[in-house]
């Protein structure tokens, strides 16, 4: 691999104009495709093969209003008045008429017809139905509903609009993300000691991000792409893109500081650091692509979309960086007396100066057992809240407090009960029956459902376009993200055989709440197998790279500690509500159901990234000196500063998405940011050196029979360096004068 990448670096350097032109041409073509052919983003959560999804698909044909999106206009009368008073009733009736004129609306049901008036008469709800899903509802239609509600406030009523038409806002680039990139640039300037080098590091990363994002958006006419998938691709593409460029360019500048030729230096950096970049990127891609085996379409799209962004970032690092370095030439060489030059000399151990990385490593391994126990104890403590983790998909209860949908959600929950925000739809079907027999069976089913625990109310059966079907709305006594609501869904399904025997109708639970519960259950069931796959993969890959048993086991345990601590912090903040006000978290409740799997997939790749860059230097020192403890110190000197900068950049990029008022993106950004910080600083830079110091020479032991069957990927570029040393020696010999016999 290293030899191939070395040749690629040479070629990209020589043909820099062509390489840059190809990237810009591809970017322009993709942007054109997005502008001409781009479709709409699809934020549907579906689980093919489940009972709820099959029933929902059936209702989409026989009763589109039941399977489509809905909006709720909530009216609250002034203090001391009731919504049933004549002036307010007239205002509500006018609002119903105005809402019915909104685009795409199929039906508007006033409180008089539905009975949605609170017991004290202070609150009423108007139901607005659409024949299409929320992703297909145009913004103009929602605006028309909001305008109709706002007009009612002129007559003294307080209004808010909620419902399933509101969802994730998706991709959004605003001030916080721009600040994140600016901080990343600042870190690069400090790391390189050069504004030119920092700018050249950022340029290939930004081009790669733009290509990856445009490519994903260009697929929307043919593939269902969610807004969350686009945001995740942006987050990951930006974070790993900058990091991968940083690794290669920092190696290049170190070599330039030692007097290397720019062309040969960037080729060597691409062959050595680039090999580690390819390995690290491949692990991220494999872990993200593995999300597709879970069988949930939106998660598959998220995984493959993010994997595509990482792939583009890798390609940009190993082709664009050499090309851009070709334009800069020797101008990237640190000035002889500059701080960057001194750092390069320190990294080679040619000065007496002791860098921060060396001092930290010596401190860590001074008492390695104490370090291991302290770090492991802290991380296990942080992970304890994860044992209480509950998973669910967010709803309007997770929206910002000031938003209209959150106000509507809270008002309905307080006045009518939390279950009114998450009704269950029960599809009752009779074989070969008529509308009359179906209605009779539906009425009997409703009576049976009323006897189940946690059922607050059961509405009368509603006929569909199929005479054998009827739909019964069940209002739970608990909210849509409550454990009790999930238990009610299971109770209805468990009672289905008895209901069929008593009524002659088969029943299936569906609706948005049931679908979300099924999604969360599928993800919960997939979590442990996915962890097993990822950990097994890490053991195998690191065993191949480092020819060791201790390193992969230590890396896997460290990875699990990082994931556990990150999930524990997520539970403490987002589920328990610790520091929720300080961090501006609008709602305490279950963790986003796909967050753990996304965190595991992403953090796995990043952990392997830092592991390779840190430990490869230590292994190189061990191979040269055979001194186990000293090799840990000397190896860390090469890479701690670069890994620190990479972790800070990634943390900043992820944290830049945290301020978004999006119930899906906010916890994911938080989890990835703290996960990177914990894994880089607590595990890789602290726990790893301590464990290697404890293991001593045993760190690098591998049974001979296993060494012979494992392939040699040469990620560290040892083969390339040997070949170059041999070539230089041959060249030197050819220049020496031949003796005359």
TrEMBL record:
Pfam families: MMPL (PF03176)
Alphabetized InterPro entries for the sequence: MMPL_dom, Mycobact_MmpL, SSD
Chain ranges of the SSD domain: 195-327
Membrane topology: Multi-pass membrane protein
Keywords: Cell membrane, Membrane, Transmembrane, Transmembrane helix
Primary residence: membrane
Coiled-coil regions listed: none
Subcellular location: Cell membrane
Transmembrane segments: 20-38, 178-198, 205-223, 229-249, 270-298, 304-329, 369-387, 527-546, 558-579, 591-618, 639-658, 664-683
UniProt similarity note: Belongs to the resistance-nodulation-cell division (RND) (TC 2.A.6) family. MmpL subfamily.
Record's protein name: MMPL family transporter
Organism name: Streptomyces galilaeus
